[in-house]
Design a protein that fits this description.
10 helices; 293 residues; Spore Coat Polysaccharide Biosynthesis Protein SpsA, Chain A; alpha/beta; 7 strands
């Protein structure tokens, strides 16, 4: 049911996104379509959930304007974590009225930890600052999440890209997906995706240790293996990057593979939760453990 519902919305946004890009040179056409999207989004938001968007950024002055162009206006909080950028990332983000949090300690995971710890809304949406992830999909992901009572959504980019990735990127992702299945016993199509939608309260239960690129797979490992948590993977459209990629395929790929084994076999220290524990969540966890025993 979830897959069929989401596939219909996915097809709708693919068509609209392509029309928007064709009309980019025709300002009136683009403006009309953006208004259509805003009305569509506003009509489908409900339950008065506050939404935070968190983006780790390292030299993303070119990507942030692309995000601002069609970011839904109803998002309550936009956090840009400036991970020691050397360009105008912070100034560009502030020009859109977004919150900029400096994080001088380099690292994808380190930047995310700082941003997530400062998010205050009921639901957190994440994406990279290079403009690749579709802002237009945010309302649909939220609708599916709330209607189907999903706690964590990981977005699958594979096979749905504006331009195909390199062979090495695809191979590396597939290898990591395979090892996740072999040693964690759940299937995922895109373990390295940087777009997630989840309830903020989950951060109190997650053991997030990585300060590196491995943070992306780690948060999914936590979400898909924590007891009593409903996690799903849903497809998205993936756009062309603005700016340079920060990924080192060989170094990061090998490090991410080693991280899977270290986490699985208890070779990592336990991390402090990013937010304080809620007694209601602790009671739920205790009830789940009692049911098992």
């Amino acid at each position: 049911m979830v897959a069929e519902k989401f596939r219909d919305h996915f097809d709708f946004f693919i068509i609209c996104d392509k029309r928007a890009r064709r009309n980019d040179k025709k300002r009136l056409g683009s403006f009309s379509l953006s208004i259509h999207f805003q009305l569509y989004c506003l009509a489908h938001m409900y339950r008065n959930k506050k939404i935070s968007l968190v983006m780790p950024c390292l030299n993303e002055e070119k990507g942030l304007p692309q995000i601002a162009r069609d970011l839904p206006a109803w998002i309550d909080q936009v956090i840009v974590v400036d991970n020691n950028s050397t360009d105008n990332t912070a100034a560009v983000a502030r020009s859109f009225g977004w919150t900029v949090i400096p994080e001088t300690r380099r690292g994808y995971g380190r930047a995310y930890k700082t941003g997530l710890a400062n998010a205050t809304s009921d639901i957190i949406v994440t994406m990279d600052g290079d403009g690749t992830y579709p802002r237009n999909f945010i309302p649909i992901l939220l609708d599916v999440m709330l209607e189907e009572e999903i706690d964590f959504i990981s977005c699958d980019r594979t096979g749905h890209k504006d331009r195909p990735s390199s062979f090495l990127r695809i191979l590396g992702n597939d290898i990591l997906n395979l090892f996740i299945w072999l040693i964690y016993w759940f299937r995922i199509h895109d373990s390295q995706s940087g777009m997630w939608v989840f309830k903020r309260e989950l951060l109190a239960r997650m053991n997030l240790t990585s300060d590196t690129m491995a943070f992306s797979e780690e948060i999914k490992l936590e979400a898909f293996t924590l007891p009593g948590l409903h996690a799903r993977e849903l497809v998205i459209y993936y756009k062309e990057r603005h700016g340079e990629s920060k990924l080192n395929i060989w170094r990061d790929g090998f490090a991410n593979l080693m991280f899977l084994f270290k986490k699985r076999f208890g070779m990592l220290d336990k991390a402090e939760p990013l937010i304080a524990n809620d007694w209601r969540l602790e009671a739920r966890d205790l009830e789940i453990e009692n049911q098992k025993s």
